[in-house]
Amino acid sequence: MAARAVALGAALLLAALTAGPLAAVLLRAGGLGTLGAPEWAALRFTVWQALLSAGFSVALAVPVARALARRRFAGRGALIALLGAPFILPVIVAVLGLIAVFGQNGVVSRALAVLGGPRIDIYGLHGVVLAHVFFNLPLATRLLLQGWLAIPAERYRLAASLGLSPWAVIRTLDWPLVRRIAPGAFAVIFTICLTSFAVALTLGGGPRATTVELAIYQSVRFEFDLGRAALLSLIQLAVALAAGLVALRLSGGQGFGTGLDRVVPRWDGRSFGARVVDGVAITAAALFLLTPLGMVVARGLPGLALMGAGTWEAAGHSLVVALGSTALCLAWALPLATKRGELFALAAIALSPLVLGTGLFLILRPFVNPFSMALPVTGVVNALMALPFALRILRPEAEAVRRDYARLSATLGLTGLAWLQLVLLPRLRRPLGFAAGLTAALSMGDLGVIALFADPDRATLPLQVYRLMGSYQMEAAAGAALLLLALSLGLFWIFDRGGRADAGA
Amino acid sequence: MQTWLLILPLAADMECEMRNLTFAAGLLTATSAMAQTPVLTVYAPDYFVSEWGPGPKIEELFEADCGCDLQFKPGDLLPRILLEGERTEADAVIGLNTDVTKRARESGLFAPHGVDLSALTLPIAWEDEVFLPFNYGHTAFVYDETRLETPPESFDALLEAPDDLRLVIQDPRSSISGLAMVLWVQAIYGDGAEAAWDKLAPKVLTVTKAWSESYGLFTDGEADMVMSYTTSPAYHIIAEGDETKKAAIFPEGHYFMVELAAKVASTDQPELADRFMDFILGEEFQSMIATGNWSIPAALPRDQWPEGFQQLELPEKVLFYDEDEAAALREEAIEAWRQGLSR
């Protein structure tokens, strides 16, 4: 009963923080606005690019995750941690990094020029999808990898002792896993791509790449047409929830039952062909994801010395906010780690950050000074935004633990805190570490709703990057971005490592 | 009986309360000493308050003899003040652009600034009683002469330039400089604006959300020319000693961009707000703002500008739509841009 009440409380808080601000904006606007042809064109483009981006991210992640799951090599742990980096970079930094590789003056174009080839043109729908795959391939990979690592190793040993062919192993073990994990990963990536704005515009090359989020931005910032912003937000929400429902439908299949809960080496994938396939997948993914990161580092190094005290202070604020968000997000996610909880949580990233910020501002303004609330609000909103990711990571394994250990726990009479402490949390250690790392890193990098809640004396690091760029300090901004990357990755690594400490991998 | 029982603990509470009161009284004296310093709250755009923006210098200069505490509150300036209405705590705002003044004026939230405008040295006539200009610039395509040896010499020449010239511009729907740019094209080409954008389209490498991203792409060498301001080269000259960044000056004229301050009607510090308005056109502020905000001072003769600004090439012809004209043309200008670039 107590568990139910906690879950209900968590769900209500989620509903209040998403529906509440939207309602506040609607109330203030006095009704919904209307849409013209450009907005409908934007909606079509938005949905189309999000479908493509999520599709490619998940499809390409399958071979990469499988390769990482069954190979052991020096630096594997570091590579897995580093692969998480694109996902947590502030948009503007990642875009400049990508363009430094794939742009007209980028590494690839210059290499081609040496060989007498043409410059490549990154700008267009393919550029948008490329960038979104860059951001989200790591997430999809990690989600799938998590699933593969959760398959009890005994299953692979059994497959080996039965002499199953590689194809039969794929059919009986790998494919059911992909069926179970991929739809949810697709839904969460699709949803996050729905609210893309600066990436889509910059890499899309012009007004053809207009997204719904840009129309919302225009409505709020330039036209003060809150009604239209609210309507566009509702449409975004509806599309995301529809995607979530479809994903729930598709993600059938049971888990693999419980094993002896220990690490056993894998017996499959020892053929030369399998090794080549895995090697290519890992190398290609690493090159694609790490080269732009390398450019961020290279651009940032000269700027590190120019940053000034303000940037270090901002880094401190960001760290505090990130740790607070992480604690809140995990406490929030555990009771919500069910199918319905995950579906609800999609609303958190489907809601336009600008509408969320405006709504929160309208709600809080009569009671508190928004300037003094800047950091707490940022922390709560970051936790909210990270919630769908945390749930995507935690839910499959939390459900598996509930199912697999239900009889044992009932026999021993384990309930409440004891169950949490002795059964659930230890089994969830790996996904919890991963979720905490991701939340902390996301929270470091996310600009969220701070625009209306900016605090003059307490900037966060991403805000500082934008402020520096706005004052011609491009080098210092690149340095601050590098610092942000290092801190985000550091936090991610510490939490993720903590989760994997006894995983033997 | 019951009453008595209740009183005893109450007495203990009272004592406790008294101690708290004494403590509170101590606090009160401390805060009232601080409260004697009146606070002037000024809303400003976000870039204003960073250590590289003009905010800290303005604060230092103004506080030197106002006997007050000037506090900048950064963020989305006008959306926030419109959401807050008359309950806003702002006494003044600084950093508005002409594209929002119509909306701001209609809200009735701003009061006349009462400053004598005869000191203004703007290239256009300015008689606005509510919005006070403090610095200006013009739209311009900025280039690096080491990378682009023969920049186009007119807007027409830019339209006819070979398609491998790479431009980055800003989206007029999300950026102030982007909006100024489409009004610039509208002012030069009128009904031919869409055709002009159509010609420019193959040269537009990409469109960014805001000025910062565009300028970052330009300094990274991704683009040959960036939609920026006539004043941008001054930053490179003064702060970096780099004279290779130039603004291409076109005979067709350049669109005028001005930044404005205003007094909030509901201010509880009207004298201080007035004083701040006077200060903005004063010599101290005007001599600092050029290098503080990398724009041309609104009330300072050219011979008093900093060295790097005096050597800037500036347009002879200045184009500008007042807020009513701009409001009437805006949708059309954005649509011409959208259609022209969408083909």
From TrEMBL, chain A:
Family annotation (Gene3D superfamilies): MetI-like (1.10.3720.10)
Keyword presence, Membrane: yes
Boundaries of every ABC transmembrane type-1 domain copy: 43-247, 315-495
Protein's UniProt name: Thiamine transport system permease protein
Lipid bilayer topology: Multi-pass membrane protein
Signal peptide bounds: none
Alphabetical list of InterPro entries matching this protein: MetI-like, MetI-like_sf
Any one of the GO BP annotations: transmembrane transport
Native source organism of the sequence: Allosediminivita pacifica
TM region(s), chain numbering: 45-65, 77-102, 122-145, 181-203, 229-251, 272-295, 315-336, 343-364, 370-393, 432-454, 475-495
Alphabetical list of PROSITE patterns matching this protein: ABC_TM1
Keyword annotations from UniProtKB, A to Z: Cell membrane, Membrane, Transmembrane, Transmembrane helix, Transport
Cellular component annotations (GO), alphabetically ordered: plasma membrane
Domain of life: Bacteria
Compartmental location: Cell membrane
UniProtKB/TrEMBL annotation, chain B:
MF GO annotations: thiamine binding; thiamine pyrophosphate binding
Name this protein carries in UniProt: Thiamine transport system substrate-binding protein
PANTHER family for the chain: THIAMINE-BINDING PERIPLASMIC PROTEIN, THIAMINE-BINDING PERIPLASMIC PROTEIN-RELATED
Localization: Periplasm
Presence of the UniProt keyword Glycoprotein in the record: no
UniProt keywords, alphabetically: Periplasm, Signal, Transport
GO BP terms in the entry: thiamine transport
SUPFAM superfamilies linked: Periplasmic binding protein-like II (SSF53850)
Primary localization: periplasm
One CC-aspect GO term: outer membrane-bounded periplasmic space
Record bears the keyword Cell wall biogenesis/degradation: no
Species whose genome carries this gene: Allosediminivita pacifica
Highest taxon of source: Bacteria
Family: Belongs to the bacterial solute-binding protein 1 family.
